[in-house]
Automatic annotation (TrEMBL):
This is O-methylsterigmatocystin oxidoreductase. PANTHER family: P450, PUTATIVE (EUROFUNG)-RELATED-RELATED, P450, PUTATIVE-RELATED. Keywords: Heme, Iron, Membrane, Metal-binding, Monooxygenase, Oxidoreductase, Transmembrane, Transmembrane helix. InterPro entries: Cyt_P450_sf, Cytochrome_P450_fung. It comes from Rhizoctonia solani 123E. It comes from the Eukaryota. Belongs to the cytochrome P450 family. The chain crosses the membrane at residues 6-25.
Length: 112
């Protein structure tokens, strides 16, 4: 029979190799995000926004990062903050085909 200690070492080594492959090697192409404040594991940027009026805090954060577009990740939920009207127009009007998609309703396309 296989010794339980050997089985434990083999399973720990396999788990360690899987973690190394996932985090150090990258596991594929990484997405490029706009500038972001430093985030913490699991909670992300939850504590990066000071209490008070949110719009003023996000505006100040954009000034600190020197960007009109700020990326934040709050507990796994990605958030994009647009601090200027021009960046909103660029993303929502000029590039709307890239960022928008509608599901085609089968009942409207092929009625029975």
């Amino acid at each position: 029979m296989i010794d339980t200690q050997v089985l434990l070492y083999v399973s720990l080594a396999t788990a360690a190799l899987a973690l190394v492959q996932r985090y150090l090697i990258g596991g594929g192409r990484k997405l490029r995000h706009p500038p972001s404040p430093i985030s913490l594991p699991f909670v992300g940027n939850l504590f990066s926004v000071p209490p008070g009026l949110d719009h003023l805090a996000y505006l100040e954060l954009g000034k600190q990062l020197n960007s009109d577009i700020v990326y934040m990740n709050m507990m796994g939920q990605p958030i994009i903050i647009l601090n200027s009207a021009q960046s909103a127009i660029d993303l929502y009007e000029k590039r709307s085909a890239i960022y928008s998609d509608r599901v085609c309703a089968p009942m409207l396309k092929n009625p029975v």
